[in-house]
Design goal:
134 residues, mainly alpha, 6 helices, 60% helix
């Protein structure tokens, strides 16, 4: 939940395709965290979250949605993680792959895996298909 709130940005539409303003993002994030804590009886957790993270004075220190620019810090971290996964899963047996070999591996092994994973994460994945009987 906290990571979701961190990653929201006015430039990125939500799952419904709606772009939210920074004020809407903050209001929804605060409400969502409050309801999460309230439903579970976590008063002390909410007090901590409000005073340390979600209060108006603390929100701009960590939330991406407070600026019009997208921070490259987390973007760089994601790119580094992608290449780490690529090396570990697909290039572990190659010391220095040639460029044509690397492109072939990306096109035939890596990209289809990402396309399949994206399809599985879609809300319409296997819509209308009967679940298996077992």
């Amino acid at each position: 939940l906290f990571t979701k709130h961190f990653c929201q940005h006015p430039s990125f539409p939500d799952r419904d395709g709606i772009k939210r303003s920074p004020q809407e993002i903050r209001r929804n994030a605060v409400y969502e965290m409050y309801m999460f804590c309230y439903q579970r009886g976590l008063r002390e957790v909410w007090a901590y979250m409000w005073s340390s993270w979600y209060s108006p004075s603390r929100w701009p220190l960590w939330a991406r949605s407070t600026t019009a620019y997208v921070s490259r810090l987390r973007t760089t971290m994601n790119a580094e993680n992608h290449f780490k996964q690529l090396k570990h899963h697909h290039l572990h047996h190659l010391l220095r792959p040639r460029l044509d070999q690397l492109i072939w591996i990306l096109c035939t092994k890596v990209t289809p895996g990402y396309i399949h994973r994206a399809a599985v994460l879609e809300d319409t994945y296997r819509l209308g298909v009967k679940p298996p009987i077992s």
